[in-house]
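Minutes, project check-in
Item: structure for the 86-residue chain
Input as provided by the requester:
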Amino acid sequence: MKKTLFSAAFALLLGVLLSVAPLAARAQCVMCKAQVEAAKQERDDYDVAGLNKGIVYMMTVPYILMGAVGYFWYRRTHPKPKAAKA
């Protein structure tokens, strides 16, 4: 029971940390960064917040899909034990 509770708490904590990490990273690919720098040189008021949000959105969707597939695969291969009759 304790092992299951610990595993569930660890999985929840890991999921929360991994879902928050892309927001803090504000990562851009090399081509996107070059495009933004070129646009900034042309215009001083160029806002990159939308580009960063788009990159984070595109990055998180595959991870959510892989997590859902992994969850359903795990549930299918590890059925719940049947309760013993008294």
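Outcome recorded: The chain has three helices and no strands.
No further action items on this chain.
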